[in-house]
Amino acid sequence: MRIDTLSYNNAQTQGARRRAWLREHSPAHLQQSAALMSHALSLRPASTSHSTAILGAGACTEIPLPELARASDEVLLADIDLVSMQLARSELVAGLQKRIRLLECDLSGGVSNELNRLLQKQPWEQLARQGARAFFDAAALCLEQCPIPDPPQIAGLGSREFGLVISSLVLSQLFSYPLLDILDLVQRVAPSLPGEQERHRRYQEAAQSFRVRIIQAHLHLLRQLLDVGGLVVLLTDVRGFAFEVYGTDHDEAHRRYLPVLPRNFPELVHENFTVVEEAHWEWITDLPEKSRFGRGYEVAGYCLAKK
Fold it and tell me: Which homologous superfamily is 2-108+150-170+214-306 in?
């Protein structure tokens, strides 16, 4: 499962070295992320909990962890990648390290495992011989039947415990990793079929419904964690793009776009929260090389309050 490789991938893309790279090549991403969290801290009422939860914390590359730790009684880092969280804590001075609690957990509530269980029940080699329609009908059925806890019940995350809850660029991973497991299966069992899923209407509808269900469950989790008067900071990639030549990353003619979130994502946010502040910016993740495109994302950042 792709989720099993997350720690390895994070080691290549997170931490102090990555933060230094972003300061040089994508400074707006760090600045906007930190500004939104600092603003939420300034708005947090004195009457609410002074504990902070960071979901998808990883190595806290975009997160002003020293500032959050100084302003909080406790900061909970929650992620499936324990090593990266330990690295983030180790960068703090000893006095602030004592305020950091680590929680190793799957923030989806085990969706990849549930989907994998359903996938293993299908006779994929036989379905591949029957053709694309039979294959992707079965894949769609697995997505339709996959249970998604709403909200996920995660030991160590108490209801109404936090005055500030941060979801840090984790939302799209919650659904993209299990969906990539299906595409890995296609590549392994039916190497002639990759790309055929784009023409299979039932599969596309099942995948989109799967994304929406996971997004709703995550938003419900954020709401559940908030103490009365607390605030949420939600950072998420919205749309990806590739570009060929460094310096043309802002040129529409040189970009190729890839949607990440469903179009109705803003509506889902507004259904669950009152939007206190909203910001949009771009995040460059890779520069182009001779044989590889540069990559980046359009990011949406929200400061949210319970309705």
Answer: Vaccinia Virus protein VP39 (3.40.50.150)
